[in-house]
Amino acid sequence: MSFPMNRMRRLRSSPAMRRLVRETKVGVDNLIYPLFVREGKGVREPIKSMTGCFHFSPDTIGAEAAEVASLGIPAVLLFGLPDKKDEIGSQAWAEDGVVQRAIEQIKRAAPELLVITDVCLCEFTSHGHCGVVKDDKVDNDSTCGLLTKMALSHAQAGADIVAPSDMMDGRVKCIRETLEENGFENVAIMSYAAKYASAFYGPFRDAAESAPAFGDRRAYQMDPPNADEAMAEIALDIEEGADIVMVKPALAYLDIIYRARQRFDCPIAAYNVSGEYMMVKSAAAAGLADEQAVMMEVLTAIKRAGANIIITYWAKDVARLLS
What we know:
two-stranded antiparallel ribbon, alpha/beta, 323 residues, single chain, TIM Barrel
């Protein structure tokens, strides 16, 4: 009986064969691990809404950073929870702020680890919005000025990369110019360029205590049905000086990652967000999924879509698995 000469199953015949011809590989070198730092001393508290994640205080975060570095993960993304909040989020750029002190401790404990800082006011404002509120709306231009102060303070504290996540127009240009003017030309910008107003952020907002007190963020974060707009946002941020651009969330927006990869020649990051992470955790806890298998399938899909960098709460688990 004749048969086609090409049998596709030949290259699936064993684990070694599958490894040999695998097109997409998730590696530790491309992962970023998010960390949450809050005021206090001796704090290492489990986050109820995010299984396996913790709140740290500045004096305990160094030990966590050292563990992350020992696993070969190259970078952490730092989020801060202050003990005092006000209308403009002034603790965000305080010299002795919780993030600024955490950067110092991380650099002391793991000098080889890249420290990326989230630049957004939502965790620092009393109303939970990402900028200055005027007449119940977030004012774009005055917010950009405060975000610039925040980014500069992070650079002065030792951050390697600042990551504006607010979705204000023009904030990358403001931050880039200020960093250059103050001698921080080597501090990179990882812009949340295509950040959608997603329903997948719930666990994070609980962890970061950053839910808006009124309204929502749809007037500044992107509308989920829009794809061409995402390409325009990314192009603008690159033009304004972003070194890395991000798509957030990742799993529900693989098409956006793919389109960005086809069009732009800069590093593309994707954020595997808290809701995506906790869906798998919840399914695994209910005995409905193999967490490790689903974890790797999800991250492989993100990488296959075109992401160079993946921000994920599974970073340590992946590093241990692949070691």
